[in-house]
Design the sequence.
């Protein structure tokens, strides 16, 4: 009997130990006290009155700097200067769109070039949520790691991963989580994260809503709470970095590059890019417009867009080589669906260089709720592309635990 009691006692102790270990493994908590009220902003918020933002109690602002290898947020400089001038702690983030490690390293270099000479107070953030259907989980992690390694190499700054809970659980692996801290997007009561599994057990910041209201900002803004660990040990200038060499067809500011092929003429190239022979001649210093040769690399002035609204209050945008409706909608704070309806586009995947599109100003975009009924063959990724939002956004808005599991007839809220 005595022997049996000992065995029972041992089993009870073992069970308690196991339960404690499981509890610590599956709980997500901040690495320290959440002490800083914060926001993250981009061109979606347009002009921000940082004096009012500061007076409202906000202490940290993460600013979108760039996306891809050519897009610099048009409000980046203004946001940085005004936030710094009002004594806010500043961080920068890059929206990663790479499909392979080579593109990831190029985007890290572009991000580093955009923030050259700037003095961030917070760790540099990688916002990687636009996963392409052709990439495996292993490839996604390789892309993320290539980006962050290259960014640290170029800037000497610490890097943090911005991720929602689903991706922190099911996408980013233990190698990423062991090397880089987490800025968690969880639009709910983050105190409920106890007993929830993730490859990270701690986070350094939490984005707890995308519908924050802050004086000095028109419309909604993402709200965050950050720990002391989000801050860099030294607030020094980012070293000077040159942007990556653009590939053929890749835009660089107001220019694109083209490698001449057999049979090309300046006239045919100008037609492709919605420009003129004269403009190509002038920008490349060509003495004889009739003499170009295969392999020659030409700088191409890309067709510009009007920043003035037309008579209907819309912006007119001229499509550039490499554009798609999703990227255009991101630039102007609207949705793919709004552009499709305004321009009577029958196939949202088919636009062409030189095409002129009417873009609704942000203030013209309807605030009414939008719903979508899932059809056969749909995926959250496809629906997110149609409406110009992220998979993460749709999953959180509709309380979808598994973004890979939706069903025909399901009604999804889009906004």
Sequence:
């Amino acid at each position: 009997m005595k022997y049996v009691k000992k065995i029972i006692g041992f089993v009870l102790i073992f069970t308690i130990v196991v339960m404690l270990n499981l509890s610590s493994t599956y709980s997500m908590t901040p690495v320290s006290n959440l002490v800083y009220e914060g926001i993250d902003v981009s061109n979606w918020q347009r002009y921000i009155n940082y004096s009012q933002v500061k007076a409202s109690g906000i202490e940290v602002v993460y600013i979108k700097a760039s996306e891809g290898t050519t897009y610099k947020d048009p409000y980046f400089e203004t946001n940085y200067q005004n936030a710094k001038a009002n004594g806010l702690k500043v961080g920068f983030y890059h929206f990663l769109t790479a499909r392979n490690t080579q593109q990831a390293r190029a985007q890290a270099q572009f991000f580093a070039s955009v923030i050259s000479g700037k003095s961030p107070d917070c760790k540099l953030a990688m916002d990687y949520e636009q996963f392409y259907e052709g990439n495996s989980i292993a490839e996604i992690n390789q892309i993320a790691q290539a980006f962050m390694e290259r960014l640290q190499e170029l800037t000497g700054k610490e890097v943090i991963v911005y991720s929602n809970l689903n991706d922190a659980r099911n996408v980013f692996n233990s190698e990423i989580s062991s090397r880089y801290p987490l800025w968690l997007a969880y639009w709910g009561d983050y105190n409920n994260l106890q007993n929830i599994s993730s490859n990270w057990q701690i986070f350094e910041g939490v984005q707890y809503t995308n519908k924050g209201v802050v004086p000095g900002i028109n419309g909604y803004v993402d709200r965050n709470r950050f720990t002391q660990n989000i801050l860099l040990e030294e607030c020094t200038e980012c070293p000077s970095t040159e942007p990556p060499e653009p590939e053929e067809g890749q835009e660089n500011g107001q220019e694109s590059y083209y490698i001449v092929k057999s049979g090309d003429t300046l006239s045919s190239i100008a037609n492709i890019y919605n420009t003129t022979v004269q403009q190509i001649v002038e920008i490349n210093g060509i003495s004889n417009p009739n003499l170009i040769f295969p392999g020659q690399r030409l700088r191409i002035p890309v067709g510009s867009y009007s920043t003035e609204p037309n008579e209907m209050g819309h912006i007119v945008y001229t499509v550039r080589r490499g554009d798609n409706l999703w990227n255009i909608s991101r630039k102007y704070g609207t949705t793919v669906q709004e552009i499709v309806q305004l321009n009577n586009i029958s196939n949202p995947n088919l636009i062409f260089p030189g095409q002129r599109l009417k873009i609704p100003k942000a203030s013209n975009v309807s605030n009414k709720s939008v719903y979508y009924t899932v059809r056969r063959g749909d995926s959250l990724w496809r629906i997110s592309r149609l409406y110009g939002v992220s998979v993460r956004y749709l999953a959180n808005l509709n309380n979808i635990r598994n973004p890979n599991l939706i069903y025909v007839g399901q009604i999804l809220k889009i906004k």
In short: Confidence is low (pLDDT under 50) at residues 13-26, 303-312, 363-367. DSSP finds 13 helices and 17 strands in the chain. The domain at 314-413 is CATH 3.10.350.10 (Membrane-bound Lytic Murein Transglycosylase D; Chain A). The first strand starts at residue 29 and ends at 30.
